[in-house]
What does this fold into?
Amino acid sequence: GQNIDQPTEMTATEGAIVQINCTYQTSGFNGLFWYQQHAGEAPTFLSYNVLDGLEEKGRFSSFLSRSKGYSYLLLKELQMKDSASYLCAVRDSNYQLIWGAGTKLIIKP
Amino acid sequence: IAGITQAPTSQILAAGRRMTLRCTQDMRHNAMYWYRQDLGLGLRLIHYSNTAGTTGKGEVPDGYSVSRANTDDFPLTLASAVPSQTSVYFCASSEGGGGNNEQFFGPGTRLTVL
It folds into this structure.
């Protein structure tokens, strides 16, 4: 079967750095996405990785290791507005997205 | 620019009733998707459409049907609702199905089946 694993919940302090991990086992791999979802709202796109390595976009970076079936999302200089769920999704061999259950990130002052 | 709209925002429905959730996008995207999101689970694909006139089944299609008569609209129909279909339903669209084409999501429909 296909599986995406993420921690259920993480807590971090405003101004700090947090790393949210995602491991996956899917039938094929055609890219990995990270989305942000605030409570009661729709998911919004954060990043896309298809090759190994780090993609940086402002305060957010995403890393991929295809050989290890592993990705992480790094959030720097945390702000209260970063409190949200972060969803990892892998595009499989059928070009459909397989989604993790999401990591709820709680930011404390 | 509206992006993707969904209607209704929320609905309470008696079991056995028929219900259509509406989804419209104005981005001229080729691909559209319907997901359901349940607590503790990832988004699960119900049905998708890679282009107008075609549809396909996702991970959890039973009890649901879709149509794609044109590029903009992708309605989801529950023929005879059951309580297990209580969920938040998201419609999404993307320019294409591959590459770095991100999916854009509508605001969601919160459906309760009693």
Notes: Chain A is about 0% helix and 55% strand. The interface with chain B takes residues 4, 30-31, 33, 41-45, 48, 50, 87, 89, 91, 95-102 of chain A (CB under 8 Å). The radius of gyration of chain A is 13 Å. Residues 35 and 78 of chain A are 16 Å apart (CA to CA).
